[in-house]
């Protein structure tokens, strides 16, 4: 019995159409300009980093391995977007941490926020946060909490 005999004609047609589409897509990508391939790679890297930034194991090497390219190719793809793999990972983690710090419903400690955001240590988090925002994380949290208190205490 061949595989052709084990599927219906409708299923066989759907499978062959999908295989044809995949082959055409693959051939198109092979002949696409390098810039197009690098743009696609940069988009995929951003998506992967956004979805995994909270994991401590996320490194430029891990991103390149997941995307099936060399670290150098990943660097070239992100260079066109004005960043590097390490900077994109750090900035994505900082964006997430900042969001948690300014969310008044969030009751995590700063150490927990650092860990949740993927930083390997509180020291690494504090250093990166101060470099980007020019203030310690506690300052951002205190500002947000005091402004929230002021908003709730205002007379109507």
UniProtKB/TrEMBL annotation:
<dbReference type="InterPro" id="IPR009057">
    <property type="entry name" value="Homeodomain-like_sf"/>
</dbReference>
<keyword id="KW-0804">Transcription</keyword>
<protein>
    <submittedName>
        <fullName>Transcriptional regulator, AraC family</fullName>
    </submittedName>
</protein>
<dbReference type="InterPro" id="IPR018062">
    <property type="entry name" value="HTH_AraC-typ_CS"/>
</dbReference>
<dbReference type="Pfam" id="PF12833">
    <property type="entry name" value="HTH_18"/>
</dbReference>
<dbReference type="GO" id="GO:0000976">
    <property type="term" value="F:transcription cis-regulatory region binding"/>
</dbReference>
<feature type="domain" description="HTH araC/xylS-type">
    <location>
        <begin position="43"/>
        <end position="143"/>
    </location>
</feature>
<keyword id="KW-0238">DNA-binding</keyword>
<keyword id="KW-0805">Transcription regulation</keyword>
<dbReference type="GO" id="GO:0005829">
    <property type="term" value="C:cytosol"/>
</dbReference>
<dbReference type="InterPro" id="IPR018060">
    <property type="entry name" value="HTH_AraC"/>
</dbReference>
<dbReference type="GO" id="GO:0003700">
    <property type="term" value="F:DNA-binding transcription factor activity"/>
</dbReference>
């Amino acid at each position: 019995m061949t595989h052709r005999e084990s599927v219906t004609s409708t299923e066989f047609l759907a499978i062959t159409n999908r295989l044809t589409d995949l082959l055409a897509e693959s051939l198109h990508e092979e002949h696409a300009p390098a810039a197009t391939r690098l743009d696609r790679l940069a988009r995929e890297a951003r998506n992967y980093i956004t979805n995994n930034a909270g994991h401590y194991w996320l490194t430029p090497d891990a991103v390149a391995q997941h995307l099936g390219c060399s670290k150098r190719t990943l660097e070239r793809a992100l260079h066109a977007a004005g960043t590097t793999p390490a900077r994109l990972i750090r900035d994505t983690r900082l964006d997430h941490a900042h969001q948690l710090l300014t969310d008044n419903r969030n009751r995590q400690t700063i150490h927990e926020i650092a860990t949740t955001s993927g930083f390997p240590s509180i020291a690494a988090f504090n250093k990166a946060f101060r470099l980007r925002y020019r203030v310690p994380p506690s300052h951002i949290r205190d500002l947000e909490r005091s402004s929230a208190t002021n908003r709730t205490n205002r007379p109507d």
